[in-house]
Each structure stands twice: as structure tokens, then as C-alpha cells.
Design goal:
Elements (H helix, E strand, L loop, with lengths): L30 H13 L3 H12 L7 H10 L4 E3 L6 E3 L2 H14 L6 H11 L6 E4 L3 E3 L5 E3 L4 E6 L5 H14 L5 E6 L29
Parallel strand pairs: 6-7
Antiparallel strand pairs: 1-2, 3-6, 4-5
Length: 217
């Protein structure tokens, strides 16, 4: 279609679907260049390459390798992480890195509320089922009123022990999402191999206090 002479090209139904040979104006009368463009268009289909780019680079849900590394540069978090506690370095596999990238993207816009912290924790470790609690240590003043002796503190709880890699990812993640001035702690309990009584600090059977002064027999 030749749009020259049209008062308003937007009125043409197929203006957005018909391919046009966009070339510099000084070559606009060259039939050879037009033929080269037509042959190029007829024999080379870039749509497959565009889909490969979208799946492997652009779409973070399906990206891999270099694609995830590119997302890491955008979100400013590397595939190779360092545990902030013990200094150990780990290079994450694609799935681990993808979860951390999702987490970092959310951390950039989080409101740091307790509901959001729980949502994000399950984005970081969807298979572990961790929970975040607000820590309240209630004390009573002399005038009878009560107060929280442990304010501005949250506790992350997992019902299993994290691996070294998971622990490094968590320690980096926890520092990303808690609010300014809010402390955090981590509790890991292997519930499958833990037995104890409520109120006894999980002491099992046969752990009563020995009487240091037995009666005279």
C-alpha cells in the first residue's frame, strides 16, 4: 500500500499490519534496494528469534542462565551471594536465583507489614512453609499497666532446618524486607524429630529435676 496522498493514514484499516520498507529517503527511488528488502522480508522470519528472546531473557518466569543474570543486573542482586553471617559464598542455580529475584523485586516496593512479610517469605521459599510472627514479650509496670518488652521485632519460623544455601538466601532476604529499626530473629524446629511437653521448654520424658537432697532412708 502506498500511503502517499492520504490525508489521514490512520483511516486505513491495515496500516498497522501491512509491512512497509522503511529506508532513507535518498534511496526511496532505488528499485534494487526495494527488491533486497522484499527478498529479505520474504526469506527471513524473526518471529522465532523474538520468541526465544522473550522466553530466555525477557520473561523472568521462564528466563535461564544469562537471562536471569540480566535480570540480576536490573534488580541489583548477583547470582553469587555471600552469607552475611559466616562469609560463605554460593552460586545459585536458576530456580534458586529466580526465587531470589522475585523476592528482590517485591522488596523494592514492600510496605514491610506482617502480612506482606509472610507473603514474601513464601515467595522466597514456597516449599518450606515459613511463618513470620510479631514478637510480644508482655511486662507489667508498677502502676499495673502492661507494655511490650520486646518492641519492633519479628521472628521467622521454619518447621525444618535450612540448608547452608537456603540460610544464606534467607539472611540476605531478611535484611531486604524488614522495616527500618525493626529487628529479626530466626527459629528452625525439626518438627519430625522433636518431642517435648508444652511449658517445659520441649523437655521429653525422664527429664524431671533431680532432688539434690534425698530424704534419709
Amino acid at each position: 500500500m502506498d500511503f502517499r496522498g492520504q490525508e489521514d493514514v490512520r483511516e486505513c484499516d491495515n496500516i498497522r499490519v501491512e509491512l512497509q520498507p522503511y529506508i532513507q529517503s535518498q534511496y526511496g527511488s532505488s528499485t534494487t534496494i526495494y527488491q533486497i528488502l522484499d527478498d529479505f522480508r520474504a526469506n527471513i522470519d524473526p518471529s522465532k528469534d523474538m520468541l526465544v528472546f522473550y522466553d530466555n531473557i525477557f520473561n523472568i518466569a521462564t528466563a535461564n542462565g544469562v537471562g536471569l543474570d540480566t535480570w540480576g543486573e536490573i534488580l541489583v542482586i548477583s547470582r553469587t551471594i555471600t552469607d552475611p553471617i559466616n562469609g560463605k559464598k554460593f552460586t545459585l542455580e536458576d530456580d534458586e536465583y529466580r526465587s531470589l529475584l522475585y523476592y528482590k523485586a517485591l522488596a523494592n516496593i514492600t510496605d514491610a507489614s506482617l502480612a506482606t512479610l509472610n507473603y514474601m517469605l513464601n515467595k522466597l521459599f514456597p516449599e518450606l512453609g515459613g511463618v513470620v510472627f510479631n514478637v510480644i514479650d508482655e511486662k507489667q509496670r508498677e502502676d499495673g499497666t502492661f507494655y511490650n518488652n520486646y518492641p519492633m521485632h519479628v521472628r521467622f519460623v521454619f518447621a525444618m532446618y535450612l540448608t547452608d544455601v537456603q540460610l544464606a538466601i534467607f539472611r540476605i532476604g531478611a535484611n531486604l524486607i524488614v522495616g527500618a529499626g525493626v529487628g529479626w530473629s530466626l527459629v528452625m524446629v525439626d518438627t519430625d524429630n522433636t518431642f517435648g511437653f508444652n511449658g517445659s521448654l520441649l523437655q521429653p520424658f525422664n527429664n524431671g529435676v533431680f532432688n539434690p537432697y534425698p530424704p534419709n532412708l
